Amino acid sequence: MASRKKNKVISVRSRRPINIDRIFFGAVAVYICVVCYMGLTSEHIAGYEVEAGTLAENHTYTGFAVRPETVYYASTSGYVSYYARANERVSGSSLIYTIDERGETNEQIQQNAQEVDLSDADFSSIRSEIKSYTESYSDLEFWDVYTFQSSVESSVMDLQNQSMLESLEEAGETAMFSRVYSGGIGILEYYMDGYESVTAEGVTEEMLDEDSYSRQDLKKEIVQVDEPVYKLATSEKWTLIVPLTEEEAAGYQEDGTEYMEVEFTRDHTTAWADFSLMQVGETTCARLDFNNSMVRFADLRYVEVKFLVDDESGLKIPNTAIVEKNFYLVPKNFLVEEGGDKGFLKGTVGEDGQSSAQFVSMTLYYEDEEYYYIDPREKDYVTGEEKMPIGSYLILTDSQERFQVGMTDTLQGVYNINKGYTQFRQISILSQNEEYTLVEEGTSYGLTVYDHIVLNGATVDEDEIIY
């Protein structure tokens, strides 16, 4: 019987082929994760493009109005009816009010005044006024609503006055009834605040505070003898006292301002005034003397105005970009020019112990009356060493005088990133508000329009690569 031969089976582990796609996409995923992590954890450096412009400074103020005013008082007691409206110019022939000591005639007049019959011409006049307003109405000029309201009320008041005057004729003259005409020429007002006799020289700091202001309405149904009934503003010459900050006052004084054009925010009209500075207690104020416009503001003691002055122009940068940097100060008489470059003669000692003078070109960032400002960190691009380390001795040409570098001062500036890395640029500030600074254009080693600077200067150092 033939024997069976056993076959030995050897298992061979097969090698899987390398999946190039998985390796590639895995590497890409790792790279993306690393980039995202770096983007989330690293501080983002934002840039800002320098632009020319002005700072929107607020030149709006509230001033205390001083004008010649005369208060008129009742000569008898009784019931009052008014015939002239406030803010109206009146003269000696203008009927202001009537007084009825018993009230019978006054009651008849008031009853007749409420029964005003309008003619077709009257209706036509009012319709024309309303149509004119609606055609010119603008949401951006809502204050015209008040002017329109005042105009319509004036028209109705005129019609009412005509009816009341007719009632006076019917009532006739009685011993208990009297007419009171204007005591002079001026703008009629029916309020009193106690400042009618104040002059510009007599203004106090308390009067400048509008929050503490109060006034008395003179219109009432019954008056007693010697009670105030109305007042007249009698001259177009009036004065506005406007509180200023010390910086504003110093600026106007330095400019020698003698005249000021202002815009009245109430109706956006403009006027010129004589301008001068005066002291009210511890507050420096602008005194504006006008020869017109009083009629429009006789009902106000505090008038808001905007000074129409030209704001300075320059380069506008955000305040967050401004940094300070230390500089060496070198006397200006040590400056040397060689081959078109500016620099200084630095004393050196050779290997043989002999002293010599080496010309070192330096960037002059700024200068005042005595010194040039140079960068302590300015390096020689060939050797990579600082050009002017602290303690260096400078030599004055044709003299034995020496100066040791070390005295420092600070300059304000920003970091320019036009070349992809941070470079300090000195700035000369013209004006500043809470968000932006206006700097002078064309300064030596300064900024120009469209330069790119670091938005937040405190987040970087000089010579830091940005991109």
Would you write up a description of this structure?
19% of the residues lie in helices and 34% in strands. The protein has 467 residues and is of the alpha+beta class. It folds into three domains: 60-64 and 236-310; 74-230, no CATH class; 316-459, no CATH class. Strands 3-14-17-16-15-18 form a six-stranded antiparallel barrel. A hairpin with a 2-residue loop joins strand 21 (336-338) and strand 22. It is elongated, with a radius of gyration of 42 Å. The termini are far apart.
Overall strand count: 32
Q: How many DSSP H or I helices?
A: 5
- Roughly what fraction of the amino acids lie in strands? 25-35%
Residues in helices, as a percent range: 10-25%
Question: Terminal Cα separation, in Å?
Answer: 90 Å
Strand count, sense and closure of the main sheet? 6 strands, antiparallel, barrel
- The number of domains is 3
Q: What strand line-up does the widest sheet have?
A: 3-14-17-16-15-18
Give the overall pLDDT as a whole number: 83
Q: What is the SS-derived class?
A: alpha+beta
User: What is the gyration radius calculated from CA atoms?
Assistant: 42 Å
Based on CA inertia axes, which overall geometry fits?
A: elongated
Q: Which parts are unreliable, with pLDDT below 50 for 5 consecutive residues or more?
A: none
